[in-house]
Amino acid sequence: MKQIMTFLMMSFFTFGCSQKAPEVSKTQFSKEALQQNLEDENGKPITIQEILNQHKGKVLVIDFWAGWCRDCLKALPKAEELERNNPNIDFVFFSLERSKEKFDSSLVRFNMKEKENYWFSVGWENDFNKYIDLNWIPRYMVIDQKSEIAKYYAISPEDPEIQATIDRLLK
């Protein structure tokens, strides 16, 4: 019993229970990351590159979330506020749900149907998430008008650097 408790405690502290900021803030996506497939609400595959192309010329905020993520749900009202306060920029939501059924259910449950949503049907471990060092959600990224990364890492929609980055890009 003592060994089991020790293992559980070590696992808790080893794997951590909070985000760890990436050591490098990337400003561009790799070719492999851009080719990563997601699925839209209808189950149609789409690549990151295609999503970025749809928003080229606009400032884009990517919000990584899931309905099972307590931190994501706590952040949702502030994310909606950020969206309301910035009507001239685009927002997309990348879901880390574990199944299409959970993805569909979360969109309804959390009033996300009116937003642009995609989910990683291949799961968390994929070329895009590895490239951006995604180790926890929620996570926010700001993409500039040329589809380059302007704000690489934010864990809250209230991070003042998100709004500062948006303001700088819109000047």
UniProtKB/TrEMBL annotation:
Return the Gene3D superfamilies for the record.
Glutaredoxin (3.40.30.10)
Pfam families per record: Thioredoxin_8
The name on file for this protein is Thiol:disulfide interchange protein TlpA
- Where would one find the signal peptide in this protein? none
Q: Which organism is it from?
A: Chryseobacterium aquaeductus
Checking SUPFAM superfamilies in the record gives: Thioredoxin-like
Residue intervals of the Thioredoxin domain: 27-171
Q: Which InterPro entries match?
A: Thioredoxin-like_fold, Thioredoxin-like_sf, Thioredoxin_domain, Thioredoxin_ResA/DsbE_sf
Q: Which PROSITE patterns match?
A: PROKAR_LIPOPROTEIN, THIOREDOXIN_2
